[in-house]
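hi! just following up on the protien thing from before. the input was this:
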Amino acid sequence: MAKRKRMKKGIKTIFVLIILICLITGGLLIYNNYFKSDTEPVSSEIEKLMQEANISKDKYSKTLEFVLLNNIYDESYLDEYSDIEFQDRDDFATILTTFLPLGYSSKEINYITKLSENNIDKLSKIDYVDISNYYEFSNFDVNKIDRYNSYYEDNDYSYKDVITYVNINLDLPVYTDTTEVADPNDLLVLVNKYHYLPDGYKPSDLAYLPGAYGNNVPMREVIVEPFKELQAAAKEEIGVNFMPTTAFRDYNFQRTLYNNYVASDGVTAADTYSARPGYSEHQTGLSIDLKNTAISGSTRLTDENYEWLSNNAYRFGFIIRFPEDKTNITGYQFENWHIRYVGLDAAKIIYEEDLTLEEYIDLYVTEY
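and the predicted 3d structure came back as:
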């Protein structure tokens, strides 16, 4: 009986020893992985360099090792080196030797390493600026930081929204600081109150479909089949016949239309629902105005029609170009009948993330 008790006690002792060994081993691993490797020199060469520079062992970091090995050590930044996260990248030495003298702290340099190469280059050419509110956003543009700050102070928006809104020029009056689009044939071409088409632009691939009023409606050939698929789906799923009223409109057509609206309602009102000539995406041939042919009069779509369209147009590469809750971004009144072709991939993202074309271009297309 005593022998059995001694055996049980021995087993318990062995079990406790095993647990202790595991705890000690685990602790050593954690120490080595997270503490030791960044607080002690890893080679005699580094230790020698630190001694020559009169640097104590507790100041060791991978970044310190890097500057010592690359002969760019500056004792005035010793404390900063400890907190700068080492980056295995070709421009790391340039980042350190550029931004530490400009007055950026270790924390800020950790921000800077997360910026695009283009932004890092821009930042290196100007005096110190505080980027702490912006660095984490991929569409941040160093050149616009003063505009971001001003817009943030004047509006109740998050920094994330401020960046996007300034990038798409919402901090500027409409039809000012405008830019000619680089490629009017691009399926993602952005035409709005800040971007205009080249003089006399007309798509070279126009095709025609029957219109709601017995007319032949011109549009770019690339959107004909996707639109036919949308039409067929609407008929099958909700029994509605969507027909185009207009699609491509040339410069002269838009000029006449806009001038008539101005004569009727004035410039300020007209600008809320009609594009000025050269600034209409109808001129790209990628936009279509729709009408449910079962509805008489000026009404184009019912609420039920629009609900289906807004939730299904993306399946065919189209988006609602001027949504009801995005008028502050698009600059136009809500139009439930106006769709725009952008392609399947872009349309899906725009639908799922509830974006406008302006926001999509800024977040997914433009490189900053």
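The chain is about 45% helix and 10% strand.
The first strand starts at residue 179 and ends at 180.
cheers
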